[in-house]
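Note to self: keep these together.
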Amino acid sequence: MKKVFTWFIILALIAAGVGGVLWWRNRQAQAQNATSNILRTAQVERGQLVITVPASGNVAVKQRANLNFKMTGDVAVVAVAVGEHVKAGQELARLDTTTLERAVRQAEIALEQARLNLAMLQKPVGEGDIKLAEQAIHNAAQSLEVARISKEAAQAQANLSLRLAQEMRDKTAEAYENTIERLEKYGQPLAYAAGITAAYMEADGNVGITQLKADYQLQQIQSQWLSAYQAYRQAQQNLEKLQTGPDTERLRQAELQVEQAQLTLTQTQESLSNAILVAPFDGIIAAVNIQAGAPAPTNLPAITLLDDSQWYVEVNVDEIDIGKVAVGQPVSVTLDSSPQTPLRGTVERIAATSTNVGGVIAYKLWVLLKDTETTTILDGMTAGVLIQTDIFTDVLIVPNWAVRTDQATSETYVYRLENGAPVRTAVVAGERNDTHTIITGGLAEGDTVALVPEQRNLMEMQGPPSTGR
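Structure:
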């Protein structure tokens, strides 16, 4: 039994020796084959590595405005065309505003009048105004005195004229009665008294006429006196107002009239502005959907205005990468329309809420473009962006194609050239971008790494043969 066991050990040692020789020869063959099959080489360099997050999106303007009239009506003027640049405040189009403009002018006049009335009430009283008011009272008093004297004179004249007419009537009546008495006494016909009768009737009628004339003259004189008295009282009141100033109620009423006039003007101006389209910002006309003489559309914007003072790219970034992105990071932008002319950009803002893009949670961000004069940029163009999220300087870097990972052991390694032959060398890898990887251990600056094809066989997968006991 012991002899059998001894032979078993001898056979195992022979098998191990044969296997080791075969493995060593295979490795030598691989090394020779690798030397002859080096596909490319690169030096380990010290430099910088830029980390980026890729994304794609579309070009957008700073702001867009779809302009519509705020009232219905026929379009009177279209002042712009597609592609035309306009300034903020520039009139773009208007409806028929003849009636509205007239209403605005009337409201302006009413406001001006109300303000003038208020200013007159608020105007400080000067010494000259007081003197003028006092002089007006003096003049009115003189006119009143003249009216009083005229009234008294007219009354006296009326009384005199009436008394004389009455005396003439009384004398004529006495003569008439004496004549009638004599005719009756002597039996003469009364017809002989016709003359005196006519004189009596005339004198009696003259009394009535004189009374009427006197009343009429007295009424006129009384009216003149009343006018003079009212002018005198008004002059006194004007002086009192100047001395005491406007009363609070009257002043408040004038202020309310100004407020009402201002409100009316504002309303008419708003109505007028509703019939006029004005550019809210500098920009370019993108669409015009109105015609002069035709009704303004209700289902389309009348005019579309784009603010092309700044251009953006709107992109969606996956939630896995959004944590690396921050406002202010530099961005490289490539337009599909001009891939040979990359543009610079900056992350300007990031949406606070997510969106679902094809089942993937993403966040929208806006990249502000720079150097936009170098190429043609239009709203809606497709663009790819690379957002620079980090940069490492003074680090060892190698091309990504040189770095490999052992699937069995997870070891990271490269093939480093030693005496012209590639030797598998374990390394410690750091951050990487699309082209290069940072190496923090295992290589030195100036080393040469190579890309060689690898051949794997059963013995390699099983590892080198173990030594039996």
